[in-house]
Amino acid sequence: MRWTVLAALLASLAGCGGTTDPSTVSLTGQWRGSVGSLGIQFVTLDLTDADRQLSGSGTWTGQLAPAGSGTLTANGLHFGTNVQLNLTFETTTGPQHLSLTGQIVDANSFYLLFPTDPTPSKITFTR
After folding, report:
1. What burial class does residue 78 get, using C-beta atoms within 10 Å of its C-beta: 0-12 exposed, 13-18 middle, 19+ buried?
2. Fewest 10 Å CB contacts: which of 19, 54, 75, 116?
């Protein structure tokens, strides 16, 4: 009886999808992150991940009405689970640049470290 239960448990686990190795995840796709700092409430990204190179565009929404919203461009690198992304925000006062680092968490999320005081904020982006 004990072996039958164990065999059934192992068989059910074998049928479950395995976890995706974060180092093999492509970041190509649409992403959304809730920043909540630097005057930015939300960021959406439409990224292309080709041969370790990241590129794309997106939008940002300000935290307060006067901050408004706008477009942004993105470019960077993806090595294993590490991400380096340069974002250029188009604003009414001209382009604003941020160079950010982060990591892939799983197939549907990665995070970027946004500069805030006293420590960077870990902002998660999801598909």
Report:
1. buried
2. 19
Residue 110 sits at the vertex; the CA angle it makes with 107 and 115, to the nearest 5 degrees, is: 180
**Burial state string for 86-111 with b = 16 or more CB within 10 A and e = fewer than 16:** ebebebeeeebeeebebebeeeebbb
Q: What are the pLDDT digits (tens) for 87-96? A: 999 988 899 9
Phi, psi of 75 (to 5 degrees): -155, 150
CA distance 62 to 92: 12
Per the structure block, which two tokens stand in for 35?
């920043």
